[in-house]
Amino acid sequence: MAGDMPNELAVAAAFPTAEDRPLREQGSVVDDDGDDIRQYTGEPVETDFGVVVPQQMAVGSERVVGGGEFPNTPGRQPRRDDTP
Prior knowledge:
The chain is largely without helices or strands. The protein contains two helices and two strands.
């Protein structure tokens, strides 16, 4: 449910919004540097926040929803390979 994570709204707002149709139908899939945006951009997804375009972005632990790759996130259970 939207708003369950402490920073979920801020993180969701960081993703660009789009129309609910494939990227290639919305415009060029080549960025300003000549790279294909599909290397770091997913297809539009309908969410509780509207249609967003998931993109790879530089993150820190304060921008990650749910802990992700940060094993020391408060409340995250240790992985089996983290235990001695």
